[in-house]
Amino acid sequence: MRKQTFLYSTLEDLDLSMTFYSNENNSSTKATLLYFHGGGLLYGTRNDLPEVYCELLVENGYNLLAVDYPLAPEVKLPTIISCLTEAIDWFLKNYQTTLGLKKPDYFLFGRSAGGFLSYLLSARHLLPEQKGLISFYGYYDLTNPSFNQPSTYYNQFPKIAPLTAQALICPKPTAEVSINERFSLYLSGRQFGNWLSYLVSTPSEKETFSLTDTELTALPPTFLAHSSADQDVPVETSRIANTKIPDVTYEEVEKLPHDFDGDITKSEGLQVYQALIVWLDKTLATS
């Protein structure tokens, strides 16, 4: 598997890059997955997908393009979405010349907050070349009560006062912060029920950045995965989406934490990625 890094944009002085995972010979590529990482939009890194899954996708004919995006709260959601729109447009402009691909076919793939971004972009920046949407334990509705009130789960941990957490905010935009450096900003936000204030400028914007039922019914073919025991994003999110999206495949695992595919010693993650490849092949065959 080959890894290459490309710059797709800059924001102020911040370089926004992408890592391209591919075979040495790209001519047999079926499609490319544009991948957005999780981290509550406050932390994370584009290269967080375990290598075993990257290799599995590439071996089965799917390249992976893992994309930077500027993190909140240094920027708000409109800027994040605008940068990712640029990333999609960069892919479509450069898939032949820079990446050496024959086809511009792509899927948006996100985990957790990246799933949220994939939902939004699939609803509001859907292009003919996009063949589907993949959300692992993602969400599409910022008005969900569990995001807007103190979390019972996160309040089991020692309290982190908002002012203490806010000391972690950087003076200028950043696109990569490790979980160790900034998880406490997210933790505090969920403990006090103010996490979303880091993403939007006004409370009414929570609705602006939530998909309507009409938008859900207009989504492209969708693959969802979630754990029944998710302590961070309620499993009902994907269960409800499974009833509202017309062309949907849903895999639910039992009794595992939020990011169930992060622990590669567990077989469930690999099984879901194998199911994903079957779905990808089928979706392309019928598109």
From TrEMBL:
Gene3D superfamilies, A to Z: alpha/beta hydrolase (3.40.50.1820)
InterPro entries: AB_hydrolase_3, AB_hydrolase_fold, GDXG_lipolytic_enzyme
Keywords: Hydrolase
Gene Ontology terms for molecular function: hydrolase activity
Keyword presence, Hydrolase: yes
SUPFAM superfamilies: alpha/beta-Hydrolases
Alpha/beta hydrolase fold-3 domain sequence ranges: 33-260
Protein name as it appears in the record: Alpha/beta hydrolase fold-3 domain-containing protein
Organism: Enterococcus moraviensis ATCC BAA-383
